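Support case: adenosine-5'-triphosphate complex. Customer-provided input:
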Amino acid sequence: MLKVENLVTGYRGKEGFVRAVDGVSFDIKKGETVCIVGESGSGKSVTSMSVMRLVEFENGEIISGSIEYMGEELTTKSNEEMRKIRGAEISMIFQEPLTALNPVFTVGKQIVEAIRYHQPLNKKQAMDRAQELLEMVGLSEPKTRLKQYPHELSGGMRQRVMIAIALASEPKLLIADEPTTALDVTIEAQILDLLRKLREEEEMSIMLVTHDIGVAAELSHRIIIMYAGKIMEIAESKELFEQPHHPYTKGLLESVPKMSGERGELLPTIEGTIPGLDQMPEGCRFAPRCEFATKKCHEENPPLESKRGRQVACWHVEEFLKSEEHHFSRKEDSIEVK
Ligand code: ATP
Ligand code: MG
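Agent response - structure generated as follows:
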């Protein structure tokens, strides 16, 4: 359904031109949910905005690479052509819901507009459909909500309105960029349930961006691990958790907050921070934070390659896996001794 190849997206800033996404390739199949996971600043939003061709409305530019949707190349489409694809075919839920809603129009008017842009319904029919959509996203008193303005709703409610708008056109591919970051845990759980339902009942393909690997584990068929504008690993969700093949993936997995942890217990995180776009290291971008890094890692960038049945960008997969096995067997030994 979606095939991204060697995508490079850059921004023109004060310090010159920087590449926020640098040679990214992945695909999403029909009915598949794929999660993009990575620390803040790794290029997840820029990747999503590139697929929607929205980067050029900021100061960004797709420099090279290809984005194919149902066999059609999106990077060369005109703005007019893209407008037809956005919404009707591919819809997006944005990271910041407040900025995406228009404060001077009621919620109802905005949903109705989205519906009528794509479907030949009259006002009354579109209003009924809007109400149906608000019910679907679990908003209470949908009739009242339709008459309200965005500022009269809570953050969670606004996010649901955004999701309703994104679903108004019955898209085939839904891109959700951190759809639950601004929400409390109860509402987060409801939104995730909704996404699960869409995935199963509507056979929608979903590209879900999150920094929460727990959410990714629960929802996705496949997971893409991104770091500093590059993909580090792509694997089936189950396999990724069973055995990460990239040291960065392992670091992310260990950063998952443990429910059973004592209060105040420090959670393991990866030491160091993601490099700035204008200070990208030569070679593997994760090398400065990687305990397995060698001279080669600091000098040559590892390509994303199929290794042991999955895609991984690391010069030392074998060594890494060996050390993991060693680690695991030691852990098992100590359990046996007890
Ligand atoms: P987060 O988890 O915080 O949302 P992210 O993975 O979505 O992070 P992106 O928003 O994709 O990160 O940003 C990737 C890089 O691109 C960052 O270094 C960011 O500063 C840069 N960037 C994003 N948008 C712009 C822009 N409009 N102009 C210049 N640089 C940008
Ligand atoms: Mg983001």
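The first strand starts at residue 2 and ends at 13.

Case will auto-close in a few days if no follow-up is received.
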